[in-house]
Amino acid sequence: MIKLKILGATALLLLAGQAPAALNVLSTVPEWAALAQEIGGAQVKVSSATTALQDPHRIDAKPSLIARARNADLVIATGADLEAGWLPLVLRESGNARVQPGRPGYFEAAQFVTMLEIPARIDRSAGDVHAAGNPHIHLDPRNILKVGEALAGRMAELDPANAAAYAAGLRSFAERWRQALTRWEKQAVPLRGVPVVVQHRAFPYLIAWLGMREVATLEPRPGVEPSSGQLADVVTRLKSQPAKMVIRPAYQGDAASRWIAERTGIPAVVLPFTVGGSAEAKELEGLFDDTLRRLAGALK
Q1: What φ, ψ does residue 61 adopt, rounded to 5°?
Q2: Are strands 74-77 and 23-27 parallel, antiparallel or unpaired?
Q3: What's the pLDDT score for residue 122?
Q4: CA distances from 200 to 219, 223, 246, 285 (A)
Q5: No. of H helices and E strands in the chain?
Q6: Alpha-helix runs per DSSP H in the chain
């Protein structure tokens, strides 16, 4: 009887076209979860350890997260120390040998792109500085494609039976992504050379891609909240080097950028930063559509 029930359940899944996913994927951040889903389609079950409204540097290693890592076939991290404060503990406590660093089930996106802002030296007084460079690589959409190519290869390595499906998923995504890149770069022409203030150094890849100029940062050191005196110094500097807007990621509070906006008259702009950071940023393409719309809107 038990055997018949199992066969019946399997038949129903097949008839419904819902065969069990081959790869259980845990991403540290929403952007890589979205990318894995684009490539893997029905062959993967994907979840993210964080949401767009959480600071990815600082996450609690809760038992529920450890349990998800325990059951994962593939863990996708940004790397470059973005998750250094919590992911090593999660992986260690999971007891899952498949997803430990150095094993095929552990993937770091930062290994496949050119890093920006690699510091000449590291010390505690510099704040939350990453030795390998700024980890927010996903905000240059060209990096998304580079990571996607490497990720598709890793998924095929872990699940060779579905290698053709992952290759097809990558081809479909890459074709749409290149078309979107052409559209975005045309839309972004008015942003070239535009001076901006950033609340946190979360946007160097976005700024470099768009040809914008970062003229000031509100945090005196990465991850350190600015005092009112430090913000006043920024206002003074902006008198001789004006900016068009002050931008912050959706996961950060707006107190500092609002303080600057009120005293300078430049608009404060919150950017979705990752998938789910706004109602419009429901997937990767929407993330960049909405980001460009918000930046362009601040110029009007």
Answers
A1: -80, 75
A2: parallel
A3: 65
A4: 6, 7, 10, 23
A5: 10, 8
A6: 2-15, 30-40, 63-70, 87-94, 141-158, 163-187, 204-210, 228-240, 255-264, 284-299
Backbone angles phi, psi at 75, to 5 degrees: -110, 125
- The sign of the CA dihedral 111, 114, 117, 118 is positive
> Residue 92: what are its φ and ψ, rounded to 5°?
-65, -45
Q: Categorize the per-residue pLDDT at 25 as very low, low, confident or very high, splitting at 50, 70 and 90.
A: very high
What's the one-letter identity of residue 139?
L
CA distance 114 to 146: 10
* pLDDT higher than 50, residue 233: yes
Residues 166, 148: Cα–Cα separation, whole Å: 10
How many residues are given for the chain?
300
Question: How many CB atoms neighbour CB 277 within 10 A?
Answer: 23
Q: Residue type for 268, please?
A: A
Q: For residue 264, which phi and psi values (nearest 5 degrees)? A: -115, -20
